């Protein structure tokens, strides 16, 4: 996949220049200087030779077919250069040149034309407005970044070219090995989706790292990310988390879904490890690259200093990992060989005068302990410390184990050589114990994700045609805000229980309905123009008699027009009062990138004041629905506290799955709230007490 | 202060050794090698000369009076060495030797004796079990850590010696200037309190940095930390935050106060800047050391790359700082001198090909903007980048401003020289924009703390003698769990409103009380053996008639003995039902280190499930009480949501102040809950509906 781009045989550098410093010179020079082994032709109509290579006036003039054209010519000349490259048989084209989407609408038009031109000829396009790409294992630096990284297992895709230069520079200092580096630029054609697919199958890539500001297409991203994550770790940093969403929302669910909620849900679904901070991105990637995955979350800490050991223990406990207990079978023999003042509890403290041998013995011991899943080794530079020898001893002890070992050599010059020895021995090293633990947390989470049960989305038997009819009718008449009565019809067709009720167009009709369904009843105004019914006196509860129903009807018809003169009052919805239950809110909104997103929260203040809600992308499985419930702080209330009985949690999980199915079946439904959903005790019926649906014009 | 320790004239190194690698050799060698200018005498009865210095058999034998003795002799010989040093006139003694409190009870006894010996002679003791100390400005390295730091403004106190060696090593690599470094060891005498006092007045110290695992004395710590923080920034890292508190608690308040709550409250009170992670400690300290404090929290970002600019903006918004708006008066002229593609919005993007000059012009511009309080400057290494020149340009532009400038040069070798130039120009540099922002957050918080209004603790007129009598009576009779009736008497004496009520010892008496105070009434069992009354059927509410009262009384007397046969049932408390109101819980517990700590939370589930509570040390001011309320997530509920009216928030704030006064007046009160405190609407009376107090034996 993407062979022509990532492993080309023949490359044309279009816009090659004789002037050092110019992009067209630097790219050619970088390809040549780093030993690219394929054919390399500078293309420039005004030069005969550049950097000792014979120059051609066009790609076609090269004569032989090219695989890849790297184009850096003035913006206006790009279309012709692309055409030329296509004619010359290029399978892939990199457009370095800027001046497209990033400069406004006109540029965006040029960019769309460029992409269409390539697509129509089955040629893949990287960029425009990018730094180029590097494949260390192919000795190819087709970028204008001058560093060529060490060969290694970490591939990086980035929506920021500048960040790639910083990463290259930084990784050289850290002796880190990299595989592919791709600057995606404006992503006119090739995007993260394509590279996730390609790198997932790339044997030279052990870990995929990415810097993203957006994704090109939500569904495709999730699919390719999940497939990639099933094969190797995908670690992404998403910038722009606080960007104002600017989303107009008419539902609770919509207004509670912030800009970042979609990305968080998508990453979770796809098994993507999310780096919350930039430094964390490579902290985590390095751990994945160099060490095996932990099988559990019990961590032992090995240190020559008490303070940093406590730091590690704090970080472990705070992050939800566990401090392992060291079993007597391991601790007792260790105690005999370590000095008396050493501690063989966790943290295992080999003392400030520990030499390499003591580290080796202790590490070998704790790695053998069945109660230990991973080890964090800490070293501070003391008088007796030999950092390099200790690094070797750690390597020797860790080599015999399938458990991950992460290291923190704290300090500066005294541990520099030791750090290099660690990295060369593929032991990830961190400047503080806390950063080692943070990387380990990511490993544990990914490891748990890999072991997750298969996702099985239940398809419930439902009355889809009935919903089809209601939805079509509303769209036809332009009633995109579906009121309570019709919304309840819709969810009833998806097997939600709703209280018996009907619309009444007169006081007398209301009384008749009430008499038929039985008291007490609730009455709610039905109007496409009124969303917050209760704020306007449009809701009356606990009505116990015909008189009360009549009074309520007449008062609504009298007062609401006074308050909202323009409101079209169609009917009043009369329904039987629900039994008691815990109020929760269930909802759905569509994320602009990732589509239908489900929401759950406990009713009223828990949602409105505490913002204690959970989101999950549809379609959702039973397990995911339960995880969603459990991820709210207020979940404990559903389980019953202080003598209250547990409510029917399964009913909520199933309701979420039914909403998931409804949202998947009907893309016309853009938002919905079931608020409240009255959850009964186990064994009793839970009921949707109110519902609201928003449709999109088709 | 501590002159003999921190700036001694004559030093004796007791236990000086001829063997390199031995502590007694290293200390002498470090003192000598780093140019200590005072008198320096090795003390060793078996040597005539060490490192060219004439050796003495004892301190007394030196003849002239010494200021400081640094002792590293075997544990058993320490007491005699200390005596000798005292005899020789030492004003301060450092005991490097280990084998004291850290090895168990016997060692702790030795340590207490040592401290007492010094105290009785007015000699200050550092250690035992420490690394020693360094005063860079005094050319004194009286430690066995071999690095001597650059002279600078950051002083470090540490409860971990190993961490100091790591800090020294690391600071050398980072070219960071330090002032004093003190390894406090077991803190037998001198502790953080003493050093906070001394360093607060030390003209060579600009910032105090500390690593603490515990404090020696809570009150003294708060006092000295607050005084120091009023003079210069105090930045502390507290390890052991997850240590199991192991505190037995009979109140809600007590059980909700975790191990770290006391430290958090104490640091907040004292204006201590808390570093949550170890790396942050020096990130923050460096910013304080090198840059002026910001006057507000509006931040401008200046970058040559879009991605890192977004990172900075994310970090700023997420941390509660604000992205500054660049005013047209600044932006318009900038736009004219920057390339067309540059952005003069915030982040200000000077583009990848920016040279030093462009950085300088842009930085000078945004620093002049009245809407900008601080600037974060980001550089990624691009083809045109000259990191050293850019560092100089940033320095030149920042030099004319009183606003802080924090820098992130991202990358490795390409920016190394630029980084050094930044540090030398006193511009703090960070490996990622996020770390620069985190340091800036700390600066903003400290700056706000310095500008806080003066703390005025209100003393309310109360009936202290009445409480005295009740407390004494309970302690005398051993009734340390004060039941509802007496607890309400106590808080009534501190002017809490309580519902009218009285204890009844028979059904008839209960009815008489109910008739007198009026229906409806509540009845609650009174027994020193029953804490959770309602769980046992010991609470009946809304009783409306004599019959109901009689039934309730008899049922309690019948059933509770069946459930808790051993419970002593004294009486039943009959009281008038409170009016409606919002239930909150107010409480007090005593932190083992920092004394009385107040708690506030919304009643019921908010406390029990959501753990949405706030703590604050007593005594508390009106402003602090309000901040406490506002710091809970559920505070919005008190302000009134969705048509509900706001409750009397002032009444809660005042109640907290009255509890604060009660807890300060009566150290015998170890815990109390007022649960619920029924807060009424503004203008109505808020009432303590239930109360419980725990006393300590005196």
* CATH topology value of the domain at 292-450 in chain A: Rossmann fold
CATH class of the domain at 292-450 in chain A: Alpha Beta
Number of helices of chain A: 24
Record the strand order, biggest sheet of chain A: 9-8-11-10-12-13-14
Mean pLDDT of chain A: 92
Q: In total, how many beta strands of chain A?
A: 30
> What summary fits the major beta sheet of chain A?
7 strands, mixed
Which architecture of the domain at 292-450 in chain A per CATH?
A: 3-Layer(aba) Sandwich
Greatest interface (CB-CB under 8 A), with counts per chain: A-B, 74 and 74 residues
Helix content of chain A: 25-40%
CATH homologous superfamily placement of the domain at 292-450 in chain A: Succinyl-CoA synthetase domains
User: Which regions of chain A have little confidence, pLDDT < 50, spanning 5+ residues?
Assistant: none
What general form of chain A does the structure show?
A: flat
**What's the oligomerization state?**
homodimer
Could you list some keywords that capture this structure?
homodimer, 698 residues, alpha/beta, Rossmann fold, Dna Ligase, domain 1, D-amino Acid Aminotransferase, Chain A, domain 1, seven-stranded mixed sheet, seven-stranded antiparallel sheet, 24 helices
Describe the structure.
The structure is a homodimer. Chain A has about 700 residues and is an alpha/beta fold. Among the domains of chain A are: about 290-450, 3-Layer(aba) Sandwich (Rossmann fold); about 500-575, 2-Layer Sandwich (Dna Ligase, domain 1); about 580-695, D-amino Acid Aminotransferase, Chain A, domain 1, CATH 3.30.470.20. Chain A contains 24 helices and 30 strands. In chain A, strand 10 (about 150-160), helix 5 (about 160-175) and strand 11 (about 175-185) form a beta-alpha-beta unit. In chain A, helix 12 (about 330-335) runs antiparallel to helix 13 (about 355-370). The radius of gyration of chain A is 32 Å and the shape is flat. Chains A and B meet through helix 5, helix 11, helix 15 and helix 16 of A and helix 5, helix 11, helix 15 and helix 16 of B.
């Amino acid at each position: 996949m993407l062979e022509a781009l990532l492993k080309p045989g023949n490359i044309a550098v279009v816009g090659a220049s004789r002037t050092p410093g110019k992009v067209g010179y630097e790219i050619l020079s970088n390809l040549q200087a780093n030993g690219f082994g394929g054919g390399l032709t500078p293309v420039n109509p005004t030069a005969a030779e550049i950097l000792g290579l014979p120059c051609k006036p066009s790609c076609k003039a090269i004569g032989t077919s090219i695989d890849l054209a790297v184009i850096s010519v003035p913006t206006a000349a790009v279309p012709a250069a692309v055409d030329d490259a296509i004619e010359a048989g290029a399978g892939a084209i990199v457009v370095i040149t800027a001046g497209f989407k990033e400069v406004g609408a006109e540029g965006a038009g040029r960019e769309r034309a460029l992409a269409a031109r390539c697509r129509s000829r089955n040629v893949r396009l990287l960029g425009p407005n990018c730094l180029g790409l590097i494949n260390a294992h192919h000795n190819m630096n087709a970028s204008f970044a001058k560093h060529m990284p060490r060969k290694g297992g970490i591939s990086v895709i980035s929506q920021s070219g500048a960040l790639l230069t910083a990463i290259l520079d930084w990784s050289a200092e850290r002796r880190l090995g990299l595989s592919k580096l791709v600057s995606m630029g404006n992503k006119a054609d090739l995007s993260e989706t394509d590279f996730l697919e390609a790198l997932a199958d790339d044997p030279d890539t052990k870990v995929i790292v990415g810097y993203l500001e957006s994704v090109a297409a939500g569904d495709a991203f999730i699919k390719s990310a999940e497939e990639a994550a099933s094969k190797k770790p995908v670690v992404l940093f998403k910038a722009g988390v606080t960007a104002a969403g600017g989303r107009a929302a008419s539902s609770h669910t919509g207004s509670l879904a912030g800009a970042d909620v979609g990305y968080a849900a998508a990453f979770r679904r796809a098994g993507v490890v999310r780096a919350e901070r930039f430094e964390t991105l490579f902290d985590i990637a390095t751990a994945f690259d160099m060490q095996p995955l932990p099988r559990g979350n019990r961590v032992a800490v090995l240190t020559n200093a008490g303070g940093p050991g406590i730091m590690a223990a704090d970080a472990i406990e705070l992050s939800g990992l566990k401090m392992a207990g060291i079993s007597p079978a391991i601790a007792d023999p260790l105690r005999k060989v370590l000095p008396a003042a050493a501690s063989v509890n966790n943290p295992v403290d080999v003392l400030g005068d520990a030499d390499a041998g003591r580290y080796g013995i202790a590490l070998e011991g704790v790695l053998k302990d069945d109660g230990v899943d991973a080890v964090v080794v800490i070293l501070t530079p003391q008088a007796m410390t030999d950092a390099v020898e200790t690094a070797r001893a750690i390597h020797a002890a860790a080599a015999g184990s399938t458990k991950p070992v992460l290291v923190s050599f704290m300090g500066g010059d005294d541990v520099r050589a030791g750090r290099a020895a660690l990295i060369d021995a593929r032991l990830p090293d961190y400047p503080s114990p806390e950063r080692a633990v943070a990387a380990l947390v990511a490993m544990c989470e990914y490891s748990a994700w890999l072991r997750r049960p298969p996702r099985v989305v239940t398809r419930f038997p439902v009355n889809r045609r009935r919903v089809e009819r209601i939805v079509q009718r509303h769209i036809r008449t332009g009633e995109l805000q579906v009121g309570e009565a019709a919304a309840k019809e819709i969810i009833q067709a998806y097997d939600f229980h709703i209280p018996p009720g009907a619309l009444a167009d007169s006081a007398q009709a209301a009384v008749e309905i009430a008499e038929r369904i039985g008291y007490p009843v609730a009455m709610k105004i039905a109007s496409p123009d009124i969303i917050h019914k209760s704020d306007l006196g449009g809701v009356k509860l606990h009505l116990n008699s015909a008189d009360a129903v009549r009074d309520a009807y007449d008062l609504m018809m009298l007062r609401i027009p006074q308050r909202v003169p323009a409101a079209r009052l169609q009917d009043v919805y009369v329904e039987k009062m629900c039994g008691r239950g815990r109020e929760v809110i269930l909802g759905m909104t569509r994320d602009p990138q990732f589509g239908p997103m489900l929401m759950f929260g406990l009713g009223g203040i828990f949602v409105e004041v505490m913002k204690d809600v959970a989101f999950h992308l549809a379609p959702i499985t039973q397990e995911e629905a339960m995880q969603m419930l459990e991820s709210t702080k207020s979940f404990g209330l559903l389980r019953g506290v202080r003598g209250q009985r547990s409510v029917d949690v399964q009913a909520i999980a199933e309701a979420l799955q039914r909403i998931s199915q409804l949202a998947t079946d009907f893309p016309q439904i853009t938002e919905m709230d079931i608020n409240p959903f009255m959850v009964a005790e186990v064994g009793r019926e839970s009921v949707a007490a109110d519902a609201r649906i928003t449709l999109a014009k088709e």
